[in-house]
Design a protein that fits this description.
340 residues; mainly alpha; 2 domains; two-stranded antiparallel ribbon; 15 helices; transmembrane helix; mitochondrion; Mtc; amino-acid transport; transmembrane
Length: 340
């Protein structure tokens, strides 16, 4: 009966959209094809759209209700595909796909750039002291830990103690790596002051990349112990797989290595060139605003590129999973929520 109702809603929406360019709406499915990098890139541009941060509680309720009406075949006449896609975009940007609960604004993927850019600027400030290095690395990994936890695969409950252990491990690893690299640079007597300053600017990348891997693994270690849910093509639960959990964490860790590359490598290169211009030499007060703009541009480019490497709902062959899961379904492949 539910399938018939959904089909009726789809037909109504299709009729209402005969003159628009929006593709036919599919509940729970991405608007853009996830088999290509470009399709995933367009999909995640929607996910990280900062405009969704300003969606009101009333608008969110309306979006959720519109999707419920579509699901149950009670969609009012005249609703367009574009309205349905917009409603789904709002829901996906604000609510966790597993728990259906609101994600705290600074830890949503749509808030990652606005709330993360000031931290990136702080990480790349020249002439860092030991105290400032520790502070910015701590703040960065604290933000990352909360983002990782808020956007994790939440099909299995995770105790608060796991979060605390993962958080402490991520922060300690980040601070240790960053401080250790800074000490090595300071003791490198062969470097000229200018070279030392340039090298110091690149220290945040290996520190952040290494710590990001630790952060993801430690924050989501419970998934490796408990496994994550895998679903068949019809969305039916097949079982809980530790192998799928390993794939999910590996894919997420790779994105966290790629993510800081443009953010922490490009700005130092760009700023080293801009600092030589007559404008900035004559107006040194513009250095920080200029660096902030460069970091914002690099962040805005890096985030969608990094998270587009893999689909959020990743697919894996059942033959690669545990025997009991392979026996539980006739599907050749199953899907799982990788997390973001």
């Amino acid at each position: 009966m539910a399938d018939t109702a959904t089909t009726a809603s789809a037909a109504a929406a299709s009729t209402a959209n005969a003159s628009t360019d929006a593709p036919p709406f599919q509940l729970g499915k991405p608007r853009f094809q996830q088999t290509s990098f470009y399709g995933r890139f367009r999909h995640f541009l929607d996910i990280i759209d900062p405009r969704t941060l300003f969606v009101t509680e009333r608008r969110l309720r309306e979006a959720v209700q519109l999707l419920e009406d579509y699901k149950h075949g009670t969609l009012r006449p005249g609703v367009t595909n574009e309205q349905l896609w917009s409603a789904q975009k709002i829901k996906q940007a604000i609510l966790h796909p597993d728990t259906n609960e609101k994600i705290f604004m600074p830890f949503r993927m749509s808030g990652y750039i606005p709330f993360g850019t000031p931290i990136v600027v702080g990480l790349l400030l020249p002439n860092q002291t030991l105290a400032s290095t520790v502070f910015w690395q701590w703040l960065n990994q604290s933000h990352n830990a909360c983002v990782n936890y808020a956007n994790r695969n939440a099909t299995k409950p995770s105790p608060a103690s796991k979060f605390i252990q993962g958080y402490l491990g991520a922060v300690i690893s980040a601070v240790s790596i960053a401080v250790g690299l800074n000490v090595l640079v300071q003791k490198a007597n062969k470097f000229t002051p200018a070279t030392r300053l340039l090298v110091q600017r690149f220290v945040p990348f290996p520190a952040v990349a290494s710590a990001n891997i630790c952060n993801v693994v430690l924050m989501r270690y419970g998934e490796l112990e408990e496994g994550i849910d895998v679903l068949d093509a019809d969305g039916n639960l097949v079982g809980s797989s530790k192998i799928a959990a390993r794939h999910a964490l590996l894919e997420t860790a790779l994105t966290r290595v790629v993510l800081p590359m443009p953010i922490l490598v490009l700005p130092p290169i760009v700023m080293s060139m801009l600092e030589k211009t007559a404008l900035l030499q004559a107006r040194p007060r513009l250095l920080l605003p200029m660096q902030s703009l460069v970091c914002l541009a690099a962040f805005g480019l890096a985030l969608p590129l990094a998270i587009s490497l893999f689909p959020q709902m990743s697919e894996i062959e059942t033959s690669q999973l545990e025997p009991e899961i392979a026996r539980a379904t006739s599907s050749q492949t199953v899907v799982y929520n990788k997390g973001l």
